[in-house]
Structures are given as structure tokens and as C-alpha cells.
Amino acid sequence: MKEHANASAQSSLTVVGSGLIVGLLLCATLIFATYSTLVAVFGMPKMQTVHASTVEQHVQAHLDIVLGGNPAHKDWPVYEPSNLTLPAHSLVTITIHNYDLGDTALPNGSPFSKVQGTVGGIATANGTATYTALDVAKVAHTFTVLQMHLSVPVPGDAPQGASYTSVTFSFHTGDAGTYTFECFDPCGTGATGWMGPMMTKGYMLGSLTVQ
Ligand SMILES: [Cu+2]
Prior knowledge:
Layout: H1 2-42, E1 58-67, E2 77-80, E3 83-86, E4 91-98, E5 123-125, E6 129-131, E7 139-145, E8 150-155, E9 165-172, E10 177-182, E11 205-210
Parallel strand pairs: 1-4, 3-11
Antiparallel strand pairs: 1-2, 4-9, 5-6, 5-9, 7-8, 10-11
The structure holds copper (II) ion.
Residues 77, 141, 183, 185, 187, 204 line the site of copper (II) ion (CU).
């Protein structure tokens, strides 16, 4: 009798168990059917893999190089503006218009003839011609931020009829801080070309605030 009761209890447990499984299967089928219908009607849901905090902002900045931009020294080239402020940890595209045409050769083998620290290691001249380096004899100025290992040689030969050469490049700013941007082409005064505007703030020397 006792055994019989146990067997009956076991069999009712089995019934409850199978009922649960069937129920779960039905639920799963129903959920899948609903999902498939929704997908069929609305299409696949788009996966959001981009997180707001990791989206890098992309900022454009513009600089001119002008001869005599500061009336105190009409024969000195000037970076305008001489104070540049950029957001930290951002992608920045800088366009430089160099109105101070003509070249000042860099010493042979100078590392400043190479494009360094930009996205892809390239700069673009006059909208289309990408380059990784310039001939040392074909450089007018450089845009260099030593602390960022960023340096771009700026050509001095404009396309025919143009009053400036245009150079564009992109880089990542990284941490906040105060940096110096400067020219490393000996475009200044003195026997070496390293005096005057090369060492005077507001000429070939400017400050870059990353914040
Ligand atoms: Cu210069």
C-alpha cells in the first residue's frame, strides 16, 4: 500500500514535471513567434554598440601664417591666432593657410621635413595632395607641438595663381594641458634664421591650451 502511494506520488510528480516542461516550451515558442513577427514587421533591431562617453568629438580649427601680421615687425611671419584652445581627448582637424609664400630650406636630414603624429601620418596640401614628408628645400614653416610629438611641414609653393598654400591634418589631443606650438623651419632672423620671430611669442611661437 505504502509502495503504491509512493508510486502514485512519483507519477503525479512526473505529470507536474512534464507539464512544466511543456509549459516552458510553449512560452519559449510564443516568445520566439512574437519576436519573429516583430522582426518581420519592423526589421532587425539595431545594435547600439556606441556609448556616449566614448564618442570622440571632432573639432575643426584654423590658423593662418601671415608675413607682417604684427605691425611691430612687418618682415616677421606670424601664426594667427597665437593662442589656440582645443578640447581634450578629441579628434582635431587643423587647416593652415600659409600666406608667407616662398621656401626656407631645412637642414638636410631634418626630422621636421616629415609629417609626424597626425592621423595616418599624413597631411594634405591644397585640398588633394597627401604627403608624409616634404623635400627639405620645399618647406616654408612647420606646425610643431613637441610635447605631443606632432609636426607638420608647411610648403611654401602655392598652386599657380593662389595667394596661399593650404595644409590640412588631423590628430588626437589627449590630456588637458598647456602646450607650445611653434615653427622649426629657420624662417627667422639672424645668421641661423633661428632668431626674431622664431623665439618670440606671438610670431612663430604660440600657445595651445587643451582643456
Ligand atoms: Cu616659420
